[in-house]
Design goal:
This protein is an alpha+beta fold and about 170 residues long. Helices cover about 20% and strands about 40% of the residues. The termini are far apart.
């Protein structure tokens, strides 16, 4: 009886699995290089880790459209930084200061990721920066108003960070 239930559970759970395995991402992130030094006065201490992954369109055994992760070499470029990384890999990107001293509150330029695999397939993805998330509350209590005032001040000075993942689909 237990053996029958185990086989049935494995069959059900096996149907929920991803159609293709994901590739392992090494722990150590790859750094990038600044192409212009004047931008560094806008950079704050620390980095944002973004994982870059490359995919190709594929079909599952049952004929459904899917994406399959593949190794690739990716270049990344913006007005401020450049780099080359193998995918999948974590990339250590700079955090930028958000302040009214800078045009557009100092939003950093988007980063263009261009990946190419061993079979010559290529693709691009654009990564944009977002301000760090801050807490908000609902309601009209005195404590809520104090927290909202603090959140507004924090939002005006929170660092710009890049999203934690970039997905490049290659054709």
């Amino acid at each position: 009886m237990k053996k029958t239930l185990s086989v049935a559970a494995a069959a059900v759970l096996g149907g929920c699995a991803a159609p293709f395995p994901t590739l392992e991402v090494p722990d150590a992130p790859v750094g990038v290089s600044f192409v212009t030094q004047p931008t560094q006065h806008r950079v704050v201490q620390g980095t944002t880790e973004t994982t870059v992954r490359a995919f190709v369109k594929a079909r599952t055994q049952d004929g459904k459209d899917a994406s399959r992760e593949v190794p690739a070499t990716c270049t990344l470029a913006s007005d401020h930084i450049r780099g080359t990384v193998p995918a999948p890999r974590k990339v250590a990107l700079p955090k930028y200061d958000q302040t009214s001293e800078f045009e557009g509150r100092g939003v950093p330029p988007s980063i263009l990721f261009t990946c190419k695999d061993a079979e010559g397939r290529s693709g691009t993805a654009l990564l944009t920066a977002n301000p760090r998330q801050v807490s908000t509350v609902t309601g009209n209590t005195v404590v809520g108003l104090i927290v909202l005032a603090g959140t507004a001040a924090a939002a005006a000075t929170a660092n710009w960070r890049y999203d934690p993942a970039v997905r490049v689909v290659m054709e």
